[in-house]
């Protein structure tokens, strides 16, 4: 399907082998400026001249927009789906209904923003933009979409209204998308939701028409996105960006007409605990019990992204309810808890998920607890090993303290609690687990953060330190694996144009373990501990399985690309002169299949290599008798 804004452009032919850049920052940073009125009919005429269909531009960013309201008889219900042709199954509509409203115990008055994630229905036909898929290899791991899941970005309003029977106006505007651009879509909602609640459907239709005029979400390019009288200037980061940097150009201020808005990073909640990093790395079951969907979703996203640039391959739900279609699957006691991170707010989960091995409890939004939970760092005295029963270890969260108006100070130590005491969401904040970390605590980073608290360092600066720390820790962990997997690649000299590409060698865990003595994480990390034990556990985890499958696919594609290059260097026309017509025709068909494969799988092949191969094919066909030429030319474009 053609996409608006993609004609004559596309990503380069860089290989997808390196994912290590820019994974600690999501710099979708838009600048918001007053927009000139774009003539809609001119835009649509231009789109038609390029063969584009209406709503192609919209579909590149969003699946649909939903309005969820509260009906006294039906409960939560989807009132509007726009565009009207958007397809949602009944199961998907039900999930959206329940996930778009906070639990009643959350007590969210006013405006609340959060996000959720849910599975597409199994019967749904997956239709992806083939051109958008080309961009995937240039994205950092935390911005890559999962075709099997939708994200929901919610702007929920609950205000008193005496004219309504229930006494409250309750409604959510929800953006449904496959793109995990959390803060970008939250910023879009901030621009359109408040006015939508005043102006209703005509305003929503106009906003969707604006989105339909957006260019495709191409990484590395500065995009200008008009939305209801303003333009958002956005740059989607690439995996090649340097960590901690951004290349977004800010607009020049001209009087009061231009307003610069910098989006925050992927999440504002930073969790400082090497133990949590290990739990996420190993794909352990985790549940986050929070007082509101906002804190629940931010915390889950913080956990998922603390292992960047490694992708978290298990399921995660920023906000999960008892009405979710996977509720029974994830809460059953007949089998071990699955590898998933759940964010919940309903007190019912404190009992239902009490058998889970790792539970994070975030405190209520009370002044006393805000001081404790939202300080830049919380510290725990070192213990050689946890007691036999599950204990609580302090959770550290960092948010924008200036906004909250909270003074920064080192909090008092929280007492250790037993897991059996976690019966309700009134339990003390902490991480309830019996897990014994493999690695020793890094005293240097804790001193650095503590010094920052004492010197009243801005929370944003503390967050940057933490993100960079976890980025470097993950890189130190993954580099030995990358080095070993690279050694499984056959030598280039073993690639023959007249044979199938050679296979990768098998991954042997014990062989890998032997490499750690000389080329292990000790070369890049100061942290001591049982690295070998951590690797052994990791090799059995879903994250390793997903990572290795991805790397194996990339390396296999690299071998296919090298095989194509070897073919191009051969004098294929000379080869045909020594072989029969049947063998020549077979060669042409195989070469055409190679071209199709390179295009379909986005192989890391240089454009001139593809052109050389087409030239070879054309030359071979022209050397054949005319009757064969006609047949071969009909088999596909060369």
From TrEMBL:
Q: Where is the UDENN domain?
A: 63-558
- Which terms in the Gene Ontology molecular function aspect does this entry carry? guanyl-nucleotide exchange factor activity
User: Which named protein is this?
Assistant: Protein DENND6A isoform X3
Q: Which family does it belong to?
A: Belongs to the DENND6 family.
| Region annotation (Disordered) ranges | 1-45
Write down a Pfam family by its short name.
Answer: Avl9
Cellular component GO terms, alphabetically? recycling endosome
Q: What InterPro entries does the database record attribute to this sequence?
A: ABL9/DENND6_dom, DENND6, Tripartite_DENN
């Amino acid at each position: 399907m053609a996409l608006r804004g993609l004609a004559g452009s596309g990503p380069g032919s860089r290989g997808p082998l390196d994912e290590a850049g820019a994974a600690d920052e999501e710099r979708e940073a838009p600048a918001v400026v007053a927009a000139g009125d774009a003539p809609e009919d001119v835009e649509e005429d231009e789109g038609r001249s390029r063969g584009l269909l209406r709503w192609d531009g919209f579909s590149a960013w969003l699946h649909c927009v939903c309005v969820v309201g509260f009906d006294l008889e039906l409960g939560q219900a989807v009132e509007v789906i726009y565009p009207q042709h958007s397809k949602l199954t009944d199961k998907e509509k039900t999930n959206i209904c329940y996930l778009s409203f906070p639990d009643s115990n959350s007590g969210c008055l006013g405006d609340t923003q959060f996000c959720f994630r849910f599975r597409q229905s199994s019967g749904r036909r997956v239709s992806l933009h083939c051109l958008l898929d080309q961009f995937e290899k240039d994205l950092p791991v935390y911005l890559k979409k999962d075709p099997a899941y939708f994200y929901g970005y919610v702007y929920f309003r609950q205000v008193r209204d005496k004219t309504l029977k229930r006494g409250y106006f309750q409604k959510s505007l929800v953006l449904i998308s496959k793109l995990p651009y959390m803060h970008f879509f939250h910023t879009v909602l901030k621009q359109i939701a408040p006015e939508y609640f005043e102006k209703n459907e005509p305003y929503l239709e106009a906003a969707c028409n604006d989105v339909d005029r957006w260019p495709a979400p191409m990484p590395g390019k500065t995009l200008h996105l008009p939305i209801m009288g303003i333009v958002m200037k956005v740059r989607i980061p690439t995996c090649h960006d340097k960590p901690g940097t951004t290349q977004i150009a800010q607009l020049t201020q001209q009087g009061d007409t231009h307003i610069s808005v910098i989006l925050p990073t992927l999440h504002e909640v930073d969790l400082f605990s090497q133990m949590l990093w290990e739990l996420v790395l190993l794909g352990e079951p985790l549940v986050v019990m929070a007082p509101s969907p906002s804190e629940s979703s931010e915390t889950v996203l913080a956990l998922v992204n603390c292992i960047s640039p490694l992708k978290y391959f298990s399921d995660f739900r920023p906000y999960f309810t008892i009405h979710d279609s996977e509720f029974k699957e994830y809460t059953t006691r007949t089998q071990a808890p699955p590898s998933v991170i759940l964010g919940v707010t309903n007190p019912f989960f404190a009992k239902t998920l009490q058998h889970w091995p790792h539970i994070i409890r975030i405190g209520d939004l009370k002044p006393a607890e805000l001081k404790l939970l939202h300080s830049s760092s919380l510290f725990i005295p070192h213990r050689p090993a946890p007691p036999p029963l599950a204990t609580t270890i302090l959770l550290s969260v960092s948010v924008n303290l200036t906004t909250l108006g909270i003074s920064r100070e080192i909090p008092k130590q929280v007492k250790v609690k037993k897991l059996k005491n976690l019966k309700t969401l009134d339990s003390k904040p902490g991480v309830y687990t019996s897990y014994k970390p493999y690695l020793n605590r890094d005293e240097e980073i804790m001193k650095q953060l503590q010094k920052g608290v004492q010197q009243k360092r801005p929370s944003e600066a503390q967050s940057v330190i933490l993100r960079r720390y976890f980025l470097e820790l993950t890189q130190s962990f993954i580099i030995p694996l990358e080095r070993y997997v690279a050694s499984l690649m056959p030598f280039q000299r073993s690639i023959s144009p007249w044979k199938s590409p050679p296979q990768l060698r098998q991954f042997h865990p014990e062989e890998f373990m032997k490499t750690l003595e000389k080329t292990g994480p000790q070369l890049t990390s100061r942290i001591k501990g049982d690295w070998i034990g951590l690797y052994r556990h990791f090799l059995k985890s879903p994250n390793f399985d997903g990572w290795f499958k991805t790397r194996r696919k990339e390396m296999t594609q690299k071998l296919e690309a090298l095989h194509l290059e070897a073919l191009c260097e051969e004098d294929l026309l000379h080869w045909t002169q020594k072989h029969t017509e049947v063998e020549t025709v077979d060669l042409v068909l195989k070469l055409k299949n190679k071209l199709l494969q390179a295009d379909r799988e986005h192989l890391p092949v240089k454009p001139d290599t593809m052109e050389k191969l087409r030239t070879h094919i054309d030359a071979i066909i022209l050397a054949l008798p005319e009757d064969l030429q006609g047949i071969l030319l009909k088999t596909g474009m060369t």
